[in-house]
Amino acid sequence: MDMNKRFYKFSLLEGAEMVRGKTQMRRIENATSRQVTFCKRRNGLLKKAFELSVLCDAEVALIVFSPKGKLYEFASSSLQQTIERYRRHTKDNVVKPTEKNVQHLKTEVSNMVKKIEFLEASKRKLLGEGLDSCTLQELQQIEQQLERSVSSIKARKAQVFKELIEQLKEKERVLAAENARLCGKLFFSRCGMQPLKGPNELIENVAYNDEGSPSSGVETELFIGLPEGRTKRTTLQQS
Question: Is the separation of the CB atoms in 171 and 165 below 8 Å?
Answer without folding.
Answer: no
